[in-house]
Amino acid sequence: MVFDAIVIGVGSMGAATCYQLAKRGQRVLGLEQFGIVHDEGSHTGQSRIIRKAYFEHPDYVPLLESAYAGWQTLEEESGTQLYWPVGLAYFGEPGNPVLVEAQSSAQAYQLPLERKPPSYFPSFQLPTDWECWLEPEAGYLSPELAIRAFAQMAQHHGAEIRTQQRVMDLEVAGTEVVVRTEQEEFKARKLVITAGAFIKDLVNLSVPLQVTRQYLAWTETDPFGTPEAPCWVIAEPGTPGIYYGFPQTEHLPGPRGMKFGHHRPGDEWIPHLPDGIPAETKVLNGVLDRYFHRDLTIGEWATCKYTYSEDEHFILDFLPEYNQQVIVATGFSGHGFKFVPVIGEILADLVQKESTEHPAGFLGLGRFSR
Questions:
Q1: Rounded-to-integer distance, Cα 81 and Cα 368, Å
Q2: At what angle do helices 143-156 and 12-23 cross, to 10 degrees?
Q3: Does the pTM of the predicted model rise above 0.90?
Q4: What digits encode the pLDDT tens for the residues 225-280?
Q5: Which of 20, 40, 259, 349 is the most buried (most CB within 10 A)?
Q6: Overall number of domains in the chain
Q7: In this structure, is residue 254 part of a structural domain?
Q8: 5: which strand partners?
């Protein structure tokens, strides 16, 4: 059998692509080297923030509008709640680029972003000269529930998904792409690679990627006392990246307490090297000491992997050496999960018609050669 498409890597992006292709009547095969939902990728750890006032670049906002619609559709089709709209608080000194660019995106696309006094957030102890903003339409998603929902709905629409299938090699043979796993050989008209940190095991990209190990922490106690507390971002002067956190999520599996972390490139991920004691223990304990009224301690840790592109923007494109038959989605740089539904739509479009109406041209490989 020759499939219309094979998708290598059935994590969040791959499962969403299988779902979109199957829903459109395409014969699609998803190959996953682990199981559906595992701890070897980028999108585990109980929760991920979703927001529209995008400080990374305003060009992402139209894609986010489509992503929000896609999350709602998946919730309705699967009967599973995936999104909790608790809001997102932004904290930082006036003029901080994170706050400035978030406001710029909000103004450009008429998104609600409200200035609040520090007293509106009583659990935090913030410098008196800092600004506080609240994005009420932000919140968080459950990555584990979302991946399962996408995979299950893909299968419902006719997709074939095989787990424990590690891909050993691939080649283009005329009008077909041949994919060989440890067990079998498969053929398809198009190939989509959504392999996360393992993409470099499959193809040679013309641009560098950096895979990093990221640490997530949970406090032993809940500083907020309510699951309706907003997610938060702290843009600290002189500190690369941002600190971020979530309210306690008693309705989701996993640790209790407040989940939080430091969003910036972590240490290089080296396969088969076990996790050590996180180097940022002192850093994250300092966040608790500086910005929270209650005495808080870290109770649990977890890790995930980020795959960074050179400019920290996504890469969605055909690989030029494969005659428009191999598509890659990579370099999500730690901020891709919220986009999963629209990424699935874009990749399905590229399979079917080699183009998309979504405004994703700024994410192509061509930008690196300009």
A1: 39
A2: 30
A3: yes
A4: 999 999 999 999 999 999 999 999 989 999 999 999 999 998 898 877 766 666 78
A5: 20
A6: 1
A7: no
A8: 28, 190
